Amino acid sequence: MTKLLLSLIIIFxxxxxxxxxxxxxxxxxxxxxxxxxxAILGRQNARRQMREALEGxxxxxxxxxxxxxxxxxxxxxxxxxxDAFGKEQVLNEKPYEVYLIDGYWYITGTVPKKYNKGGAxxxxxxxxxxxxxRLTHYK
Length: 139
What we know:
Blueprint: H1 2-20, H2 34-37, H3 42-54, H4 70-85, H5 87-91, E1 97-101, E2 104-108, E3 121-126, E4 132-137
């Protein structure tokens, strides 16, 4: 009886494999969305995690410096600056001045020497955790 059952299982497995493998090597596109392929924990979980973090529970922040390079500092600052002051305005203030001073990134835009219609943006944020200390645009 065991041999018969084992034989039936093997035949079943072979049949399943041959029916899914038609010899056609082209792949059918995956039409399922990312949200169908990944577990979504939801807003309630996000709220709980945020509350725990603000109360000092859970995983502590362990990096001594999260934003270590000027290129990472710029990549961190630009989306914030674009939202605050407009992408075109910020990009017109290149080249940026970028300095790491006492654990804080100082980034400011530059304006042409003969420009007399205002100033540039300025952002200061922690290299350790990205916390913004100042965000302004001088007029």
